[in-house]
Design goal:
Length: 112
Amino acid sequence: MILRLGAILALLHDAFLPSTSSGGLMAAVLRGIGAVAAALLLVGFATPVAAALMVADELLIALLQPGDVWAHVLLIALGIGVALVGPGAWSVDARLFGRRVIGGRTRGPTSP
């Protein structure tokens, strides 16, 4: 939950408090995509898709806009982490599809 919350706050910061006021239509579209990804992550709907959208958005921002790219690299890493962890217990995905249980071997009789 903390990983997802950190990604949401960072995306909203980039979407509503851009570091540069210029950038034109492309910058506005990329900020809008980040805001949509943050909204999807906030409610936990289509979490892997929203995380992939976040990664693609931040990669485009890092490649197309001049300046320091390390904040965007950090957001790419956060997006990959959220995609791998998946939705949390308090998400729309968990309500719709059930919680994902990651497990190893089950206990039972051993074979000879």
